[in-house]
């Protein structure tokens, strides 16, 4: 007997099924489910009550069931492979084989559940004159694997995978990932139509007025402040109303206006809430290296002058030109440079070696001009940092093998006239380097890309009843979908990264070079802190390490997760 019951959640249905069961049938360890409807549905859980000898047995599915396909779901128990009940072993193996999909060919469809590896070979469009190198599979350009989509190769480069045309935007943004990897188990197309229309009709025209005369730039600081000051009024737009209803993320919802003359509700950055120009101070410049968007690159200074790790036979002498005389005057407590290093009070944000090999090519791109930067900082007695010097470098005009051409800039207040403005520019160039590194390496590569092969491997090698699978899977949620969408609109040729981050078409190639030095064993928080010299081993600490800068929010709040 089947009875429909009232659901506790909107859009969900609950059914009660009654059938006979006795002790001789044992305790069920798995259920087979077949969908006889014409369309798919999301099965969340199946709960058996009153099972003899057990009481309640729960089968957690959280999976889309497509028509006429048998699916198996195991009871919410945990088994190592050697402990799996004998009658369930074959079901476990069949399920893993389905997820591996080895031997399958052709383009995967939304109902496929295949986790296979592939290279990053779908970023460019060689058939349209926009090739990009294949990342992964070679020593020259290594890269984490991505989830295979099975799309055919391009005509001009059989190594590259074809892309879905930009004008087929809904299809492009529904790029293949196993269906259960989609955001909140929703189809992106469920709210995509509204979002596209809302953005094009209501948001873009407003933003465009601020960048129309200078592409990729704001015309003035005031244009930026206007984004936060409630001066951007959005016209009444039905699509915005529908979009706000359908987006499940509360933060994004809060940004979207819903009625005529509503404002684009961008949250005001804390740093300018009391002073519009607080971001220009040396204190804030240094603070953001510890508490800004990229607090994972600053290091303790252990040698002076600063040496380069670049191959001198290729890049010449890339050593820093910052001298002791230049920074001595800004040290405190009568310390020399050597004494300050010994007391762990000198730090560096070093983006010199990161960008120098690419500067020639990057600066030949239209509208681009950047420097490789080194920023030295001093830890004051009050526990805060202050900048001592910024070195900006370019490749030698006679060739990279001749080293770098560098200039050192020293702190100067706004009241210092030209020197003060030049110091502001030096800080800006250093910040641009750090911002690009954050977006490309700290965020994309080290947070998103490197995790994807672990997601694939977990689903290919570990059954859902394996204890490690149960521990890892919550941390993987939405990763494959986010990364697939990134390949569609963010990191692809002509995508958001190339339009907004200065390495432009060399951005992903640069991230591949960085990945050569990526080591899993160095990614744990304590190991990373010790490697960068931001902490020292300390057996008396409950975390095993002691921070050298107490006001370092990111690791201070994260350490409990590592104990």
Automatic annotation (TrEMBL):
<dbReference type="InterPro" id="IPR001024">
    <property type="entry name" value="PLAT/LH2_dom"/>
</dbReference>
<dbReference type="GO" id="GO:0006633">
    <property type="term" value="P:fatty acid biosynthetic process"/>
</dbReference>
<keyword id="KW-0276">Fatty acid metabolism</keyword>
<feature type="domain" description="Lipoxygenase">
    <location>
        <begin position="78"/>
        <end position="563"/>
    </location>
</feature>
<dbReference type="InterPro" id="IPR036226">
    <property type="entry name" value="LipOase_C_sf"/>
</dbReference>
<dbReference type="InterPro" id="IPR013819">
    <property type="entry name" value="LipOase_C"/>
</dbReference>
<comment type="pathway">
    <text>Lipid metabolism; oxylipin biosynthesis.</text>
</comment>
<keyword id="KW-0560">Oxidoreductase</keyword>
<comment type="similarity">
    <text>Belongs to the lipoxygenase family.</text>
</comment>
<dbReference type="InterPro" id="IPR000907">
    <property type="entry name" value="LipOase"/>
</dbReference>
<dbReference type="InterPro" id="IPR020834">
    <property type="entry name" value="LipOase_CS"/>
</dbReference>
<comment type="function">
    <text>Plant lipoxygenase may be involved in a number of diverse aspects of plant physiology including growth and development, pest resistance, and senescence or responses to wounding.</text>
</comment>
<dbReference type="GO" id="GO:0031408">
    <property type="term" value="P:oxylipin biosynthetic process"/>
</dbReference>
<feature type="region of interest" description="Disordered">
    <location>
        <begin position="128"/>
        <end position="163"/>
    </location>
</feature>
<keyword id="KW-0408">Iron</keyword>
<keyword id="KW-0443">Lipid metabolism</keyword>
<dbReference type="InterPro" id="IPR020833">
    <property type="entry name" value="LipOase_Fe_BS"/>
</dbReference>
<feature type="domain" description="PLAT">
    <location>
        <begin position="1"/>
        <end position="79"/>
    </location>
</feature>
<dbReference type="InterPro" id="IPR036392">
    <property type="entry name" value="PLAT/LH2_dom_sf"/>
</dbReference>
<dbReference type="GO" id="GO:0009611">
    <property type="term" value="P:response to wounding"/>
</dbReference>
<dbReference type="GO" id="GO:0034440">
    <property type="term" value="P:lipid oxidation"/>
</dbReference>
<keyword id="KW-0925">Oxylipin biosynthesis</keyword>
<keyword id="KW-0275">Fatty acid biosynthesis</keyword>
<dbReference type="InterPro" id="IPR027433">
    <property type="entry name" value="Lipoxygenase_dom_3"/>
</dbReference>
<keyword id="KW-0444">Lipid biosynthesis</keyword>
<dbReference type="InterPro" id="IPR001246">
    <property type="entry name" value="LipOase_plant"/>
</dbReference>
<dbReference type="Pfam" id="PF00305">
    <property type="entry name" value="Lipoxygenase"/>
</dbReference>
<keyword id="KW-0479">Metal-binding</keyword>
<dbReference type="GO" id="GO:0046872">
    <property type="term" value="F:metal ion binding"/>
</dbReference>
<keyword id="KW-0223">Dioxygenase</keyword>
<dbReference type="GO" id="GO:0016702">
    <property type="term" value="F:oxidoreductase activity, acting on single donors with incorporation of molecular oxygen, incorporation of two atoms of oxygen"/>
</dbReference>
<protein>
    <recommendedName>
        <fullName>Lipoxygenase</fullName>
        <ecNumber>1.13.11.-</ecNumber>
    </recommendedName>
</protein>
<dbReference type="Pfam" id="PF01477">
    <property type="entry name" value="PLAT"/>
</dbReference>
